[in-house]
Amino acid sequence: MQNKIGKAFAPAHISGIFIIDIKKDPSLSGSMGCGICLEDGAVTEVRPSKETIIRINGIVTGAPTTLSAIGLLTPEPVLVDTKLDIPIGAGFGASGAGALSAALSLNEALSLDLTFKEVAGAAHCAEVTNMTGLGDVTGMTFGGMVIRKKAGAPFRGIIDKIPSRNTKISWIEFNEISTKSVLSDELKQKTINRAGKSRLKELFKKPTVENFMIQSAAFAKDIELMSPRVKDAIEAVKAAGGLASQAMLGDTVFAINDNGALMEFGKVHESRISNAGAHLI
User: How crowded is residue 228: how many other Cβ atoms within 10 Å of its Cβ?
Assistant: First the structure.
């Protein structure tokens, strides 16, 4: 067991619409809403160690969400190596992807013999407690385009999915947005929840990839977190015949068929919708 290494992948998750639902029990808390998973994400290796150290892209970091998830699963010290090919603080669920891939890897490395529900539950509770996300871990657990119908940890909340191909998603990020600062603003929470309920209702009427993008853009507009550049980029994609919205919660625009419109705003990144959820590799 001493030399055993666990390795797992968790996809990025872009939330397009969400409704905050916080309860005393973090496993019953989280958000309702809808988001998409990407083939880009987090790959994490975990091995036994003399002390717990977390490295992200080779740099030692505090990574509170990953640290909390580990603490919920074992008292044993481990070395965690996470490689992220998504930006942090830009609405891709980097904290959740790091925590979920670390929890899955940890289960294998230490032969904890836990189920997916237990492992993903720890990552979800760590996210909610640290206020780094609410529904990302649930989306990442199942992959694809997950509709979260009832808040809670994976396998405790209620989910559905919008059938989707591995459609290409392009994005451009500008600045970071602190998830914590938005989630702790009571007035902003009310605005988000009012808009979220309205847009999710519209999405249920026509659960397609295209309508998800349309309702997400309307949600982003309703909650007024768009920077001028985000607004301009979304409009440019629309004018070019594509669909775009703001990644929640990030100063980031993601698009389908942007037809080159995002290029004028800076470096454009591309990935595809991943219908595979988090898994060992």
Answer: 8
Can you name the residues that pair with 54 across neighbouring β-strands? Answer: 80
Region class of 270: left (phi > 0), else alpha (psi between -120 and 50), else beta: beta
Q: Report, as an integer, the average pLDDT of 102-126.
A: 98
Average pLDDT, the chain: 96
pTM higher than the cut 0.85: yes
Token output for 163: 């059938």
Report the pLDDT value the prediction gives residue 179, as an integer from 0 to 100: 79
Query: How far does Cα 153 stand from its chain's mean position?
Result: 13
DSSP state of 247: P
Q: Which CATH number fits domain 163-272: 3.30.70.890, 1.10.510.10, 3.40.50.2300, 3.30.450.150?
A: 3.30.70.890
What is the dihedral angle through the alpha carbons of 1, 117, 40, 30, rounded to the nearest 10 degrees? -140
